[in-house]
Design goal:
Elements (H helix, E strand, L loop, with lengths): L2 H10 L3 H14 L3 H14 L3 H14 L4 H13 L7 H10 L4 H14 L4 E5 L9 H10 L1 E5 L4 H10 L2 E5 L3 H9 L7 E6 L2 H5 L12 E4 L2 H10 L2 H5 L1 E4 L19 E5 L9 H13 L4 E5 L6 H13 L5 E3 L6 H7 L4 E4 L8 H8 L3 E5 L4 H4 L5 E2 L2 H9 L4 H11 L2 H34 L1
Parallel strand pairs: 1-2, 1-3, 3-4, 4-5, 5-6, 7-8, 7-10, 8-9, 10-11, 11-12
C-alpha cells in the first residue's frame, strides 16, 4: 500500500495530522504527486487555510492541468472566496482539449454568467496619495474586477475609464479636476469621489464638474460642512454622503499599556501639525519631571522647523528630552521598541487622524489637542485645550481597554467596507433603474 492510500485511510478515519504527513511524503517523493497535492489542498480548504489550499491545488494542476478532482476542488475554493472568475482560463483550456466534457462545459458557463455581474471598478489616484486605499482595494477585488491607476498619465487614465463601469476618484484634487473637465466619456460612467480634508481647504472643489459625479463621499461630517462652505454648489449638483474611515485592527496588536514618561509624535513635521507646541508642552512636563521625553517619528516637510528646533531646544535645555527618528514604515514596532506610553497630536486641523486611531487600537492613551470637531470624533477626556488640561489627562486614569474598544466600536475597517459595499449596490441599482427608464422612454417614443 503506497503512502497516498495510507493517508486516505487515515483521513477517512479522522486522523488528519497523520494523514497530512503521508500526503506530504507522497507529494515530495511518490508517484502519485498530483493526487497527494490535491488531498493536501482539500485538508487545508476544510481547515480554513485558503492560501495554503490554493498553493496545493495549483501544484497539483501544474503536474496535470486536466486532473479533474483538482480542477473541481480548486474551482469550489475560488467560489467560496468570490474569486471564481480566476478559474475561467483553466476551464477554457480543458474544454478545448475535452470539448465533450459536459460537466466542465456547464461549470464554465455558470461561472461566465456569474462573472458578467461583477462590476468593473477603476480606482484613480495621484501618485503618492494612495496610502488610504490598500484595504479598500483589496476588499473590492474579492467581489469585483478592479484596476488601479495611481498616476497622472492621461493615456492610462483614459484607458481605465474606458474599461470601467464605475470610476472611483480618490481625493477631489487635480486628477478629479482633469477627469470631470477633460475626459468626454466620463458622463457614460458611474462616478464616485472620496474627499478627505485638504481638498476642501485649498480651493480645488470649485474646479470640479460635480454634475458628472454621482456620489461625493466625505470621510467625516465636519469635512462635508467645510465643503458646503467653500463650494456651495456641491450640495446641489451631486449626492453627498459620509463614510467614516476604518482601521484594520488586525494590523495593530492590542495589549494593556501603562502610564509613563515616553510620549510619541507621529507624522510629517509641518505647520498643520503645530510643532512649536511640542516644545512648549515638553518644557512644561520636563519642569515637573525630567524623565519626560517626546519622541518624534516622521519626515521634515518644512525646513524652517529644523532651524527652529536647533535654536529653541538648547536654549530651553531640552536636548536630552526630545528625539527625532525620521521616517519609519513600522510604527507598532517602533512604539514597542521605544517604550511609548502616550501618543500626542497637536494638529490645528484633522479630518480624522489615523495615527490616533491606530495608537488607541494598540491600547495607548492619546493626548489630542482640541482641533475643530475633535470632540465629535474622539473621547472628550483625552482632548486638551491647554497644557494644564494635558497634564490633567496624563495624571488621570490610564485605560487601554477603553481606548481599544472606542476604536473597535466606531471605526472598524469592516464597518467602513460594509458602508462602501452598500454604496456600490445603491449606485449599481441606480444604473439599472436609469437603463430601464431610458428603454421605456425609447419604446414609448417609438410606439
Amino acid at each position: 500500500m503506497n503512502k497516498r492510500n495510507e493517508g486516505e485511510i487515515l483521513f477517512a478515519e479522522g486522523k488528519i495530522e497523520e494523514a497530512v504527513k503521508y500526503f506530504l511524503f507522497e507529494a515530495e517523493n511518490g508517484s502519485n504527486r498530483k493526487e497527494a497535492y490535491n488531498n493536501l489542498g482539500v485538508i487545508a480548504f476544510q481547515d480554513g487555510h485558503s492560501e495554503k489550499a490554493i498553493d496545493y491545488f495549483t501544484r497539483s494542476l501544474e503536474i496535470d492541468p486536466l486532473y479533474r478532482d483538482a480542477v473541481i476542488n480548486y474551482t469550489s475554493l475560488l467560489k467560496t472566496l468570490n474569486q471564481v472568475h480566476i478559474a475561467i482560463p483553466l476551464l477554457e483550456q480543458i474544454t478545448e482539449i475535452k470539448p465533450n466534457d459536459k460537466d466542465i462545459l456547464q461549470l464554465l458557463e455558470n461561472i461566465r454568467t456569474t462573472s458578467q455581474s461583477r462590476l468593473k471598478i477603476a480606482v484613480l489616484c495621484s501618485r503618492g496619495f494612495d496610502s488610504f486605499l490598500e484595504d479598500i482595494v483589496n476588499h473590492l477585488k474579492v467581489s469585483h474586477d478592479v484596476r488601479t491607476c495611481y498616476t497622472n498619465n492621461e493615456l492610462e487614465i483614459h484607458s481605465c475609464i474606458e474599461w470601467a463601469d464605475i470610476v472611483w476618484l480618490e481625493f477631489a484634487n487635480d486628477i478629479s479636476v482633469y477627469v470631470t473637465n477633460k475626459v468626454s466619456t466620463i458622463h457614460q460612467k458611474k462616478v464616485v469621489c472620496r474627499i478627505h480634508k485638504y481638498e476642501a481647504l485649498v480651493g480645488l472643489l470649485s474646479q470640479i464638474e460635480w454634475n458628472k459625479i454621482d456620489k461625493a463621499i466625505f470621510v467625516a461630517d465636519h469635512i462635508r460642512e467645510i465643503a458646503y462652505e467653500t463650494c456651495p454648489s456641491i450640495a446641489r449638483e451631486t449626492e453627498c454622503i459620509v463614510i467614516n474611515n476604518g482601521v484594520n485592527l488586525q494590523k495593530f496588536s492590542y495589549k494593556k499599556r501603562k502610564a509613563g514618561y515616553n510620549i510619541a509624535v507621529v507624522g510629517h513635521i509641518n505647520n498643520k501639525k503645530n510643532p512649536s507646541m511640542w516644545v512648549e508642552i515638553l518644557n512644561r512636563l520636563a519642569t515637573l519631571n525630567p524623565q519626560y521625553k517626546i519622541k518624534i517619528v516622521g519626515d521634515g516637510q518644512e525646513i524652517l522647523y529644523k532651524y527652529y528646533f536647533e535654536n529653541i531646544i538648547p536654549k530651553l535645555g531640552l536636548e536630552k528630552n526630545i528625539e527625532f527618528f525620521g521616517k519609519t514604515d513600522d510604527i507598532p514596532s517602533w512604539f514597542e521598541r521605544e517604550g511609548i506610553n502616550y501618543l500626542l497630536t497637536t494638529s490645528v486641523c484633522e479630518s480624522f487622524g489615523y495615527g490616533i486611531a491606530e495608537a488607541m487600537a494598540m491600547g495607548y492613551k492619546p493626548l489630542i489637542h482640541n482641533f475643530p470637531h475633535s470632540e465629535d470624533i474622539w473621547p472628550h477626556h483625552c482632548i486638551f485645550s491647554s497644557t494644564d488640561e494635558l497634564i490633567e489627562i496624563i495624571n488621570d486614569n490610564y485605560n487601554s481597554h477603553e481606548y481599544h474598544e472606542f476604536v473597535e466600536s466606531r471605526y472598524s475597517l469592516s464597518s467602513q467596507l460594509d458602508a462602501i459595499d452598500d454604496m456600490l449596490i445603491s449606485l449599481n441599482n441606480e444604473s439599472h433603474t436609469q437603463i430601464t427608464t431610458d428603454t421605456q422612454m425609447e419604446n414609448e417614443v417609438n410606439a
